[in-house]
Amino acid sequence: MPKLLVEKYNLRMTTQRFEVHNDRAQRLATAVSRLRTILRDARWQVTDLALTQVSILRTLEQSGSATAAELAVAEHVTPQAVAQQLKGLKERGYILTTPDPHDGRKTMISLSEPGAALLDELLVTREVVLARAIE
Description:
single chain; alpha+beta; Arc Repressor Mutant, subunit A; 2 domains; two-stranded antiparallel ribbon; 59% helix
């Protein structure tokens, strides 16, 4: 039986490779990989946002609002990387910014109505893709 190389990613974005010798595990790994590709392609049909930008929108949906520094911590990226992603999201109207009521030096970021609508569309698309995969 051929060996399957499986990649495992950790938070430091490094990859660990290990061999899978079990046929069932090999088939599962192949199915998961295909499903991930299908989900990614479905996302691209809805939006051309980067995965990090979609993740930021989801974080804002869950938290209500956050500072850029809080988003950087939540997304495990640098504040500079978040700032770049936020710029694109603001240009598209997916986020709103307001002064922090407790600290005027900070800016609070929240999800706009178009941003919430985009997340809803992505969720519906994901559910349809998963339902088809199960059938």
